[in-house]
Amino acid sequence: MILEFSCVDGGTHPITGKVWYRFPSCVAPGGERYDHYLCSALFMTMHRPDDCLEALAQLDLVQSGQSAETTFGLNDTGVTFTPRGAQVDIAIEDEIANPDGLFGLAEFRNAVVAWRRFLSEPCSHAHSLQIDIS
After folding, report:
1. What whole-number distance in Å separates Cα of residue 28 and Cα of residue 31?
2. What is the pTM of this model?
């Protein structure tokens, strides 16, 4: 599954200057569930590279067998990591435990690692990153 991370022009703030929004999306045909759940989890819960590291640490606890279940999230979007996978829940839309929101731990990890790399780089119109998370 191909994800694309891009910078979206947010205009100019009178004090801080140019504003950029970082936006993940799925560009593969048939990737609607990836766009709706996985990309939403990245966008809503991981705003800084350190947030990605925290999510990866939670995922590692499950993959290493140190924990049977961990959760990560902010606001109304959360991810529950279990040996079965990464379950993305979007509470504001009453989408809890929806099977479409379940992703393999490896593909979720690949998405978070790439998102962290993208968040670590400067933003501009030309800046984007495509990654195959399969």
Report:
1. 5
2. 0.94
The answer to whether the CB of 34 falls within 8 A of the CB of 28 is yes
Q: Which amino acid is at 28?
A: A
**Cα dist. 40→13, 22, 77, 93 in Å?**
25, 12, 8, 12
Give the whole-angstrom CA distance, residue 116 versus residue 19: 19
* Residue numbers of the chain with a pLDDT score lower than 50: none
* Tokens coding 26: 């799925």
Q: What is the crossing angle of helices 49-63 and 105-120, to 10°?
A: 160
6 contacts 39 by C-beta, under 8 angstroms: no
Residue 40 is predicted with a pLDDT of 96
Q: Give the chain's domain count.
A: 1
Q: Which domain holds residue 25?
A: 2-132
